[in-house]
Design brief:
By secondary structure, the protein is α/β, with parallel strands linked by helices. It has one domain (7-334): Alpha-Beta Barrel (TIM Barrel), CATH 3.20.20.210. It has helices spanning 7-15, 87-90, 101-112, 129-137, 139-148, 150-175, 196-216, 233-238, 253-260, 283-297, 317-334; strands spanning 54-55, 61-63, 73-74, 122-124, 179-183, 221-224, 243-247, 265-269, 303-306. Pfam families: URO-D. One of its GO terms (molecular function) is uroporphyrinogen decarboxylase activity. This is Veratrol--corrinoid protein metyltransferase. Residues 138-306 form the Uroporphyrinogen decarboxylase (URO-D) domain.
Length: 339
Amino acid sequence: MTAHLTQKENFLRVARGEMPEYVPVSTFFSIEEAPLYSMADPSILGSFRGPGGGKDPWGVTYVTGEEIKFAALPKPNDFILTDVTKWRDVIKAPDYTGFDWEAAAKADRKKYVQDPDKTAFVLGGFADLFQQFIGFMGFTEGLCAIYEEQEEVEELLDYMLEHSLYITKNLLHYYKPEGYYLLDDTASKLNPFISPKLFNEIFVPRYKKCLDLVRDENVPIFYHNCGRCEDLMPSMIDIGVNVWDPAQAQNDLVGMKQKYGRKLAINGGFEFTMPSTWPVVDEEEVRETVRDTYKKLAPDGGFIFNGMLTSLDFENPKVQEVNGWILDEAKKLSKTVYQ
């Protein structure tokens, strides 16, 4: 098959619910190839999610380290809010007086997109209200507050939402992104952290206010939610989510694809579990799992291949070799399934 679309054009077709020429293949774990999209924070938010950690705009301290592969997490037992009924005394909105949005947009585009023909400029509007709230209080106290003090939590979320709306409006105006990223993990590997009922009552209406702004600009919406979050997805699709990222294998992805078709693009759908025989791995078995994923999720579009071996030890030569098999097989299939 001869491809006529660039990597980015083909990827954005999937994000818009259109039929692509070929299956986009994510290369996030490859340092040699340009990624499909940038998945970045605008510089106004600072670099707290980076490898150095730091404070987020609300004052929550994030830490990192080699043991967690330099992912940034709220500092344990250093919560800025211990009683949700006292949030008005503690939580203060960030002040961005004098911030040069136009200059920041130019600098961020240059920073995050090295090849505009290959990488879509996708940024977040800091609408991750659940994670922000849990960052204030921690999981134990935060989840108890959601169930015991729902009215106070909702008033706090409305206060936080004004900040998300401010970021989103300016992001759309100055950055002209090619995608909007909502990153808000609300599920574990097995189940959501809160019931779908509470999720729909508390979070969905507030997400919608941000996403309505994005939909008005015809910008595709990417929703990041790890774990088994399929119970929460229908309401998110209703308010405009176009791409589920990462759609992890513990969800009923075949059922979701049958129900929503290209309306919801599945970005992910693959993982190869490290076998008990590690480091002995059957290459053909690895490649067959990739082929099986394509058979289930690629037909009629709406699929972006994204996945790897279930190991974060990316520098391990054997991990690199297995991930290389996965990427090679995915690329081979990419150009053939829609012939």
